[in-house]
Amino acid sequence: MASATLPRFFIIFTLLPLITHSIPFVVFHGVADSCTKKGVTHFTDLLSNWSNTQGYCIEIGNGVWDSWFMPFSEQTEIACEKVKSMSELSQGYNIVGLSQGNMVGRGVLEFCDGAPPVKNFISVAGPHAGEASIPFCGTGLMCIILDSLMKLAIYSTRLQEHLAPSNYIKIPTDLDGYREGCTFLPKLNNEFEKNATYKERFTSLQKLVLIMFDEESVLVPKETSWFGYFPDGAWDPILPAQETRLYTEDWIGLRTLDEAGKVEFVNVTGGHLDISDDDMKKYMVPYLVDEDAPESSIRLESDSRGPPSSTSSGAMGSVRKLIGQQDLQLNVIHRP
């Protein structure tokens, strides 16, 4: 009787580390998108399958519309409550931010009282240091509305309350207007009124992965993905992150994390949110994988619906749309 029980006990015991220490992740999508769209669900599933961890897309309001028109203070509050209500995240979790979704993710990390701890933060094309223009939208009803709104002052109360991207617009030659009118980014970057709690929470990350695309056409400048930006009062030169005041004065703890070896500055081939499966596996999956899980549990095989992956980041491949519209879409590229 005892000998029959022992193998069963041994099997259960050996599986305990994988079950106990598995860290889930959440995805915050970009503008003009929603968690219910096929592309985002597929993106989340790919990362989940490859890392052998559970992934969740956190929706804000109704998705597409609210990503454009709900101010980030409200978006962050909604995300905060959702994260705190998910028992699956109670022991900690990782964040994957897509473009504008990084603003929500960082808002949860820095502002959300009583939230579970965030272990790693993976940023894909995030406008962390600001954005110098409203992201290209295209044609259609929402874009017509945006064109009309853009005739107003970007830092006006009306625009700040009803056009989400205006909350992280930073015009380098209008810093007075930015300081007085921008309602979210200055707080997020601990820029004017310093808050030690925000910095403490940001520096609690074990790893911050900042992914920038070398052919970026939506973020202005593209270096904002790495916290680089224009100097105060001028449009040139573009400063690398390490030369910005945000870094040198360590407003949110980016320099602290970097000096501790906890920041990865990653440059990948492609336009805005065009990321290959190889780059996802190389730069994202390792920070989602359970460190205590056996190596055999990490699934890095190619998606059966696409050709096998290669290690070359310069080859061309088929493209699948993962979000929104036109230049704002996230593409996962399978390279032959």
Automatic annotation (TrEMBL):
Stored Pfam families: Palm_thioest (PF02089)
Claim: Hydrolase is one of the keywords in the record: yes
Keywords: Hydrolase, Signal
Signal peptide (UniProt feature, chain positions): 1-22
Keyword flag rRNA-binding: no
GO molecular function annotation: thiolester hydrolase activity
Segments of skewed composition (Low complexity): 305-314
Xref: PANTHER family: ALPHA_BETA-HYDROLASES SUPERFAMILY PROTEIN (PTHR11247:SF79), PALMITOYL-PROTEIN THIOESTERASE/DOLICHYLDIPHOSPHATASE 1 (PTHR11247)
Name recorded for this polypeptide: Palmitoyl protein thioesterase
